[in-house]
Design brief:
The protein is α+β, with helices and mostly antiparallel strands. It has 23 helices and 33 strands. Helix 16 packs across helix 18.
Length: 809
């Protein structure tokens, strides 16, 4: 039987199996395709849903209240009028402080032209609390007294009064918050948006939110440089990053940024996006405050509004967009200058900066101000006072989000003088007294006598440091500043006390309720006998006679007078109160002395005059509130003695700084162990209170005269005080007397003769007999008023006697 051949595997058979494998593979993908499609649909749905979510987020924030706007705080505006007692140089100094610039032409607002005897100003338009004021071109003429006339250079007629736009002194914003001033695209210099597009995003007007061309160009540049030297983000993407996102450099964040930029570009016009960018872009840091937008940056760096910027200034701000910290012109001026000039070259190449202007702009320096004039760090103590006075009237959210406009009473010139004198004065006091450098601290309050407006507030040696506000919170014993309150209380009883009433300045021991004995001493540690005239005891700040006087009139009555003058505390009713055993902050002292300076009229000290919405609609007004607190006659006589304190007593050294022709009143204050040095004093129009001491409450080794008075005199010398004019009230008469004192320390009075006399005030009808014959009419009237009640009493007794005799006789 023949054997069958066993079939062998052939190549064709092996190849025949390949199509089946490919077929199986194709089958696998066919089976997978629905899943892929499903996943794609799910991904597309998720992406669509995410896009819808992003779209809602983009539109909600962009169309709603786009920014939270901190309240803006303004200083008091300078009012210009014929008769203003400011010199040409003083007004020019204020113009410079507010960013006005000297110019031969007044073609633009914010400029001035100064020449001998006159000053031409092109003011800025401004929306005040009581309405809008248009920009004006005016001329001020001057004489030896100040402004002699105010006339118009434009065609709007001669004005009676023109207000300069007020200096914005700060903002009220949350800690680590943003700040900005909103601007409109149509109101900014055209060079700014044109320059931004040229430098940051040349395809801005054509792309749809993202620019593949820019991304590719940046990628190539970065690869060539071996690092990141160029970004591909459009202006729209930068807006999205600043407005919605954070600075994390991740692919997810960049993808989200691109999607949101596309959505933003789809919904809003290019001008709307560009305007938002102008207001949102980050341009610097001021402590805890982030500077956003070109509107605020213009003030922050150049101290003037955006519309007044020159080409080189616009170029610097545009240059800083790339890196506000890296190109900070205050910290890195050379780097900022190179970057600015590069941007100017780009402006020139783009054709909107002509050859001559380009060359002049490149020659100009950076021009940034040394200080950030619109920062809350410039006047932190005063802004603190503003916040406290607004407390309870507005919520924090109103002050930090609604863009309110707060018009205050601060006078920038007075504030500058107070800050400078506190800083320099402490240096001089430390050097002169051999005190360790920078160991002393100080605070100061300056007010207007009329109206009780707070003109300046210095919270510490470094006025720009937003730390402990000593003017409001450093409550320290006031020492002899309390003494005028004691004497005022006594002089309110004219039948018992007058300026010549003899006081006992001998040793004193008072048994206290707790069994202790209080034994005060004079600063000199010696007494001055039992015949010290009342005015002399206060003039030379004698403790013993003052303590006796306080005990005689009653400590509760002294406290009552203190509260009438404006003190809102609750002091202990103890004998040592008479010598200043009560803690007060300088602001509280200023309130008390302002009432004295105002002739006994109490006005709450205010730092705010008006509050409006950001559109200028009035919200709150702070009208002048005034009431008679203390009778005018004893206040007048007390202030007469305080003028002698300044002229002849413990405050006499002030006239080493002040013009001796200026008549002022004031009082020194020194506390135990020389811990606190005080001076409070006033002229006809200005009041100032100064405290000097140490934060650790160790002895400062200063009296009121050697410390605080030195700073006070410097401040007053700089703020145009008007001398006191002694016009007595109707029921006060002044008797010309020759005043003398024994050089050995025993006080006395010489009432003979009428030469070399001093007018001494008395309440009419209460003048002591035998003082002088220089005014016989007054003396006769005074004797008649004293004798008449006695005669009436004698007649009444006689009539009663006759009546009794008739009845029982």
């Amino acid at each position: 039987m023949a054997q069958k051949k066993r079939p062998t595997r052939s190549t064709p058979k092996r190849k025949a199996r390949t199509p089946s494998r490919a077929k199986a593979k194709r089958g696998f993908f066919r089976r997978l395709l629905p899943y892929v499609f499903l996943l794609g649909c799910i991904g597309a749905a998720l992406l669509a849903g995410y896009m819808v979510y992003l779209d809602g987020a983009v539109r909600a924030q962009f169309e709603g209240t786009r920014w939270t706007l901190p309240a803006k705080v303004y200083a008091s505006p300078l009012e210009l009028y014929s008769g203003l007692d400011l010199t040409r140089s003083e007004i020019v100094s204020r113009l410079d402080r507010q960013g006005y610039r000297a110019s031969s032409s007044l073609s633009r607002s914010g400029t001035y032209r100064s020449s001998a005897g006159q000053l031409d100003i092109h003011t800025r338009a401004f929306h005040f609390w009581d309405g809008k004021q248009a920009a004006r071109e005016i001329r001020l003429s001057f004489n030896s007294s100040g402004v002699s006339s105010l006339s118009a250079l434009d065609k709007s007629g001669d004005p009676a009064l023109v207000r300069l736009d007020p200096l914005m002194i700060g903002s009220i914003y949350p800690k680590q918050g943003e700040d900005r001033i909103l601007v409109k695209l149509g109101e900014v210099p055209p060079m700014l948006p044109a320059g931004l597009i040229t430098v940051e995003d040349r395809d801005f007007m054509n792309h749809w939110g993202v620019s593949p061309k820019s991304i590719l160009r940046a990628a190539v540049a970065n690869m060539r440089a071996g690092g990141v030297v160029q970004g591909g983000s459009t202006i729209t993407q930068q807006l999205v990053k600043n407005f919605y996102l954070n600075n994390q450099q991740t692919l997810v964040r960049k993808a989200k940024e691109a999607l949101m930029a596309i959505l933003l570009d789809a919904h809003y016009s290019k001008p709307e996006i560009l305007e938002a960018y102008l207001n949102e872009v980050y341009l610097g840091q001021d402590g805890g405050r982030a500077i956003h937008g070109f509107g605020l940056a213009s003030y922050f760096y150049f101290q003037k509004p955006l519309e007044e910027l020159q080409p080189q200034e616009i170029a610097l701000l545009v240059a800083m967009v790339k890196g506000p910290s890296y190109y900070d012109p205050r910290r890195n001026p050379e780097r900022a200058l190179r970057r600015r000039n590069l941007v100017l070259d780009m402006f020139h190449s783009a054709g909107f900066l002509e050859e001559e202007s380009w060359r002049e702009a490149k020659k100009a320096d950076l021009g940034v101000t040394a200080r950030t004039v619109r920062s809350t760090s410039q006047y932190p103590a005063f802004i603190d006072l503003v916040r406290r006075q607004l407390l309870g009237q507005y919520k924090d959210a109103d002050l930090t989000e609604e863009g309110l406009r707060i018009f205050t009473t601060l006078d920038p010139a007075v504030q500058a003088a107070a800050e400078q004198r506190v800083s320099d004065g402490l240096d001089k006091v430390e050097a002169a007294r051999g005190i360790a450098r920078d160991s002393l601290q100080a605070s100061a309050v300056v007010t207007s006598v009329e109206g009780g407006r707070v003109l300046a507030l210095v919270g510490g040696r470094d006025a720009g440091f937003a730390g402990f506000n000593r003017a409001l919170d450093a409550r320290r014993p006031i020492g002899s500043l309390m003494k005028p309150v004691v004497y005022l209380t006594a002089l309110a009883e004219p039948s018992k006390y007058n300026v010549l009433t003899p006081l006992d300045d001998g040793p004193l021991a008072v048994k206290l309720a707790n069994g202790d004995t209080w034994r005060p001493n004079n600063y000199s540690m010696r007494s001055h006998g039992s015949e010290v005239p009342l005015h002399y005891a206060l003039t030379h700040s004698y403790n013993l006679s003052t303590a006796r006087l306080a005990l005689d009139v009653g400590i509760p009555n002294v406290i009552d007078t203190l509260k009438k003058l404006g003190y809102n505390g609750d002091p202990l009713s103890v004998p040592s109160l008479a010598l200043g055993a009560v803690d007060m902050a300088p602001m509280q002292v200023a309130q008390i002395y302002n009432t004295l300076a105002a002739g006994g009229y109490y006005t709450p000290l205010l730092a705010i005059r008006d509050v409006t919405t950001r559109e200028g609609e009035p919200l709150s007004r702070y009208p002048l509130k005034i009431r008679r607190a203390v009778d005018e006659s004893p206040v007048y006589i007390t202030n007469w003695i305080l003028q002698r304190v300044a002229r002849y007593g413990t405050g006499a050294s002030m006239y080493k700084t002040l013009d001796r022709s200026i008549n002022v009143a004031g009082k020194t204050g020194t506390t135990d162990d020389l811990r606190d040095s005080w001076f409070a004093g006033f002229s006809a129009n200005r009041l100032a209170v100064v405290w000097v001491g140490r934060d650790d409450n160790k002895p400062a080794q200063l009296t009121g005269a050697t410390g605080a008075l030195q700073l006070w005199a410097g401040i007053m010398a700089d703020i145009d005080p008007r001398g006191l004019m002694n016009v007595p009230p109707e029921d006060v008469v002044e008797i010309p007397l020759r005043m003398r004192f024994d050089p050995n320390g025993t006080a006395g009075n010489d009432y003979g003769g009428c030469s070399n006399t001093t007018p001494v005030p008395f309440v009419r009808g209460e003048v002591p007999d035998g003082l002088s014959d220089c005014d016989s009419d007054i003396m006769r009237e005074n004797r008649y008023r004293r004798e008449q009640p006695r005669q009436q009493e004698q007649q009444q007794e006689q009539d009663e006697g006759n009546w009794l005799q008739r009845l029982f006789g």
